[in-house]
Specification:
- By secondary structure, the chain is mostly helical.
- The chain has two domains: 148 residues, no CATH class; 78 residues, no CATH class.
- It has ten helices and two strands; from the N terminus they run αααββααααααα.
- The chain has a two-stranded antiparallel sheet.
- The longest helix is centred in the first third of the chain and has 26 residues.
- The chain starts with 14 loop residues before the first helix and ends with a helix.
Length: 241
């Protein structure tokens, strides 16, 4: 069985420390570059209309459910064989690594190789799916903002920063139940279970069994690894830090 190195807990890790570490990884720079370029283009294009205000409102309403769908159907994709081929996308592979070792900073973020196609697809949608260039750029700007918020929230949850605000503590607790109790529930990352409550994946934690595969998605590793994951999943103090 392959063992993974667990990062030591860094006591006294501040929000400033987290912010500095966040910018050491490619996804933050790639998404922020897209944001700056899209915002600059949006200002230059002008043509502001009331529909530009509707785009962010609609995106805010949809994003928790988009996040849930991606988490369930893309990140938790189970490898499938079609003839001699195995369908196992990079995003799913990296997410399994993230579940194995949630404290490994490098696998918290969206893989930069995935962003090499995700960002062009987003740009293509902005160019082709809207009736005005300005409206498409509004979409792209706000999408990049949401992407940065997602990356920051997800990183912060798995960092050694201790949550202080009530809202952040709720988001933190919700996602850590997903990792350390049962991976079949609590798929929200940037909200305190908004989509989970609507879509039926927000049970009372007290009534949910600790999953032996929370750190071993689809039981891909050995039986001894399953037992290790179940033991770690039972450590509720990790989810209540």
């Amino acid at each position: 069985m392959t063992t993974t190195q667990v990062r030591p807990i860094r006591k006294g890790f501040t929000l400033s420390d987290a912010w500095s570490e966040f910018w050491k990884y490619p996804s933050a720079w790639m998404i922020s570059t897209t944001l700056i370029a899209a915002l600059t283009a949006r200002i230059l294009v002008g043509d502001w209309q009331y529909t530009d205000a509707l785009v962010p409102v609609a995106m805010l309403a949809v994003f928790p459910f988009f996040e849930w769908i991606v988490h369930v159907f893309v990140l938790h994709w189970k490898p499938r064989s079609v003839g001699p081929l195995t369908i196992d996308p990079l995003l799913a592979r990296k997410h399994r690594e993230h579940h194995i070792n949630p404290r490994e900073v490098a696998v918290i973020f969206i893989p930069w190789k995935a962003l090499l196609w995700v960002l062009p697809v987003a740009i293509g949608i902005a160019v082709l799916a809207f009736p005005r260039p300005g409206m498409g750029l509004t979409f792209l700007t706000f999408l990049a903002m949401l992407g940065l918020v997602y990356e920051w929230c997800h990183y912060l949850i798995h960092s050694d920063y201790k949550p202080k605000g009530k809202l952040y503590r709720a988001i933190y607790k919700n996602h850590r139940f997903h990792h350390f109790k049962n991976e079949h529930y609590w798929f929200s990352v940037t909200t305190a279970g908004t989509s989970d409550r609507v879509l039926g994946t927000y049970p009372d934690p007290a009534g949910v069994e600790n999953s032996p595969t929370a750190k071993n998605l689809h039981g891909a590793r050995s039986g001894s690894a399953d037992r290790e994951a179940a033991t770690n999943g039972g450590r509720l103090k990790m989810a209540k830090r």
